[in-house]
């Protein structure tokens, strides 16, 4: 990308938490920013920070007409988009059995299909520009899952799977894809953006601690979303942008431990695994 062109960031779910911090960071860097959320009034305070740099748009990631219109509005205002940050999403706490199918589908709809929809809307532009970056905000829960976070992790695992394929498809076209796996950060995920499912007593021992953890986490998280934005920008600027960027010591440690467990199982069962080929 030519250095004389001002970067344009397009951020979903920008009214609170990570999305808001990413917007404030980008504005501070002198970038142009498109902020989107389901409610336009919640974006006003970001717009007032730098009206000349900010386009605020009402966009529900589950509404394809709004997604198309927002991409069109972004291009007509700034002429290009350099970085898409798929940040819109929410969490569910509940055992798999405690989570009704409609809630599971809604979780997939926003966290997975919503992100894919916005990505697809921007791909023709990125291909035309022969540049661009897609940043998919996954989670530590996109690499591993625990009791009570099944639905949330399923949506993030799906997002990571499609992101990995996208990265392979887009890299020859000059387009980067990066999966971000944050641990605990001071955002609204544990507050307004977390839904709690009705409880079945049998799961108190397994899901209970997760429920308590999620409820107690709000406002006590040690991660700084502004520093997360800076880390993402730094990784995007690198010659070798990582496919996955963990954020926070908790994410690094948990994912390392989980990966080591995977490798250990692989080694333990390797003989059984390879002995399954047809004889002769």
CATH class: Alpha Beta
Number of helices: 9
- Fraction of residues in β-strands: 15-25%
How helix-rich are the residues, as a percent range? 40-55%
Average pLDDT, to the nearest integer? 94
**Termini separation:** 55 Å
Q: Any key phrases for this structure?
A:
single chain, seven-stranded parallel β-sheet, 15% strand, alpha/beta, two-stranded parallel sheet, 280 residues, 9 strands, Rossmann fold
Q: What's this entry about, in short?
A:
The chain is α/β, with parallel strands linked by helices and 280 residues long. It contains nine helices and nine strands.
Which secondary structure elements does this structure contain, and how are they paired or packed?
Elements: E1 8-11, H1 17-28, E2 32-37, H2 44-49, E3 54-58, H3 64-78, E4 83-86, E5 91-93, H4 101-129, E6 132-137, H5 150-170, E7 175-182, E8 194-196, H6 204-217, H7 225-237, E9 244-247, H8 249-268, H9 270-274
Parallel strand pairs: 1-2, 1-4, 2-3, 4-6, 5-8, 6-7, 7-9
Helix pairs in contact: 1-7, 3-4, 4-5
Description:
This protein has 280 residues and is of the alpha/beta class. It has one domain (8-249): NAD(P)-binding Rossmann-like Domain (Rossmann fold). 48% of the residues lie in helices and 15% in strands. It is built from nine helices and nine strands. It has helices spanning 17-28, 44-49, 64-78, 101-129, 150-170, 204-217, 225-237, 249-268, 270-274, and strands spanning 8-11, 32-37, 54-58, 83-86, 91-93, 132-137, 175-182, 194-196, 244-247. Strand 6 (132-137), helix 5 (150-170) and strand 7 (175-182) form a beta-alpha-beta unit.
């Amino acid at each position: 990308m030519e250095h004389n062109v001002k970067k344009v960031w397009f951020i979903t779910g920008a009214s609170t938490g990570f999305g808001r911090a990413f917007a404030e960071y980008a504005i501070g860097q002198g970038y142009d920013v498109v902020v989107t959320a389901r409610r336009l009034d919640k974006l006003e305070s970001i717009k007032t920070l730098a009206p000349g740099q900010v386009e605020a748009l009402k966009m529900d990631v589950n509404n394809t007409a709004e997604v198309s219109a927002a991409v069109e509005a972004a291009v007509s205002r700034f002429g290009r988009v350099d970085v898409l940050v798929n940040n819109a999403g929410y969490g569910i706490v509940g055992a798999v059995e405690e989570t009704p199918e409609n809630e599971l589908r809604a979780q997939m709809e926003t966290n997975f299909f919503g992100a894919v929809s916005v990505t697809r809307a921007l791909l023709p532009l990125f291909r035309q520009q022969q540049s661009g970056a897609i940043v998919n905000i996954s989670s530590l829960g996109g690499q591993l899952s625990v009791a009570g976070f099944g639905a949330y992790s399923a949506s993030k695992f799906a997002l990571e799977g499609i992101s990995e394929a996208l990265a392979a498809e887009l890299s020859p076209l000059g387009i980067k894809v990066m999966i971000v796996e944050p641990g605990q950060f001071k955002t609204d995920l544990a507050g307004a953006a977390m839904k709690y499912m009705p409880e079945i007593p049998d799961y108190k021992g397994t899901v209970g601690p997760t429920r308590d953890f999620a409820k107690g986490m709000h406002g006590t998280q040690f991660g700084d979303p502004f520093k997360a934005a800076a880390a993402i920008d730094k990784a995007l600027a690198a010659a070798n942008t990582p496919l996955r960027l963990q954020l926070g010591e908790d994410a690094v440690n948990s994912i390392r431990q989980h990966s080591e467990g995977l490798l250990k199982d692989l080694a333990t069962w390797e003989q059984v695994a390879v002995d399954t080929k047809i004889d002769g």
